[in-house]
Amino acid sequence: MKRIYLDNSASTRTDPRVVEAMLPYFSEFYGNASSLHGFGREVKEVMAHSRATIAALIGAGPQEIVFTSSGTESNNFALKGIAFANRDKGNHIITTALEHDSVISPCEWLKGQGFIVTYLPVDVDGLIDINDLQKAIRKETILVSVMQANNEIGTIEPIREAGKICRACGIYFHSDACQSFGRIPVDVHGPCLDLLTINAHKIYGPKGIGALFVREGTKIMPWQQGGGHEMGLRSATENIPAIVGFAKAAELCVEEMSGEAKRELRLREKIIDAVLHDYPFAYLNGHREHRLPNNISFGFAGLEGDAIRLLLELDEMGIAVSSGSACSANGGGHKTSHVLSAIGLDPVRARGALRISLGRFNTEDDVNVFLSKLAHVLGSLKPLTSVF
Ligand SMILES: Cc1ncc(COP(=O)(O)O)c(C=O)c1O
Q1: 70 lines ligand 1 (CB under 6 A)
Q2: pLDDT per residue over 131-180, tens digit each?
Q3: CB-ligand 1 contact for 95 (6 Å cutoff)
Q4: Closest CA to 338 of 117, 89, 119
């Protein structure tokens, strides 16, 4: 049975061109970038080149890119690093109700350390209101964090406007771009960003590597002490093969972005149109236009409690999608999604969504097979209500 992967927001297949670029750095060029000998110097040079490549793609300087292990680490570093370094200025942080857990959890942890966190609400499509941000700012506000695009429903936030407000008020502005980098244009100047989180495994690069852009002059506390790597901001021996792969993956995504976004958008619209037309009880979560070209999130009225069953039945037929909410098939937990709750879905509806996320390796044929398997599975499940 041919398996079809439609969960590219969770992670992507590493592009063979990325694997090829990484291979020499396992057993041919394997030195430690901190070593003074030739083995060290040659990888140090490659690392500098990779750093410069990634920096240029987002309009940053190479010295402003700090390599980390992941998007999660970059988000933790941004929030905790800014909070603790700027405690003398204030203790208030603003973020949104639909951030990834790797922003929400550190914010909740910071609350226990004496910080105050405001979560901006979002509308039915998942968009923040810029006026709410303006109103939430206080004299103690030191940091605002707004994701560029949401991982569950794909909604793209107005970070350009948010960043301008922060800059005018002298407040640090961070954005989590793990879902948007490589898919839509990302640059640090337009939105006046001081900090930006990106990672590689969402863009056909390897897992276990991410970066935080830290604008030069930003007051941030290193979160990991040791040998003083990464301009003293993140100690640990650098993962050279992963860094090389990250840079190659980022380069390919940006080079191929406009054609790929159009292709994915066409496939996305084909799925949305077909599902909304064929199933009157289906509804789309997230904004119809302000959304990532590869993201689709459906709810099926009356079938929310069956979201995991739907996912598992599709999986048995070789189709990999996501529930799009914080559910765990093996842990038995089926929690409400904070993102679906934030857009106003009631607790029953917030339990079940089907996220289909397209990627570089998906074809029109994959979409046709998905639609026919979905018809089969939905035919065997009887929705409790027929109209949303
Ligand atoms: C929006 C967003 N932020 C952060 C992360 C965490 O990234 P990583 O898996 O590299 O820790 C993810 C990954 O799921 C994400 O989608």
Answers
A1: yes
A2: 999 999 999 999 999 999 999 999 999 999 999 999 999 999 999 999 99
A3: no
A4: 119
Question: Ligand 1, atom 14: nearest CA belongs to which residue?
Answer: 10
Shared domain for 198 and 321, answered yes or no, is no
Domain of residue 71, residue span = 16-252
Q: Are residues 225 and 295 in the same domain?
A: no
Residues forming the active site: 327
Residue 174 has a CB neighbour count (10 Å cut-off) of: 31
| Structure token pair of residue 136 | 């939430």
Last residue of a domain, one of 235, 252, 269: 252
Domain count, the chain: 2
User: For 11, which DSSP code?
Assistant: -
If asked whether residues 144 and 39 sit together in one domain, one would say yes
Residue 386 is predicted with a pLDDT of: 46
- Across the chain, what does the average pLDDT equal? 94
For residue 118, the domain's CATH number is 3.40.640.10
Regarding pTM above 0.90, the answer is yes
* CA 148 to ligand 1 center in whole angstroms: 12
- Cα–Cα distance, 343 to 172 (Å, whole number): 26
Render pLDDT for 235-256 as a digit per residue (tens, 0 to 9).
999 999 999 999 999 999 999 9
CATH of the domain at 285: 3.90.1150.10
Structure tokens at 343: 């857009």
Percent of the chain with pLDDT over 90: 89
Asked if the structure places residue 387 within a domain, the reply is no
Residue 265: HSE in the Cβ half-sphere, 13 Å Cα cutoff: 14
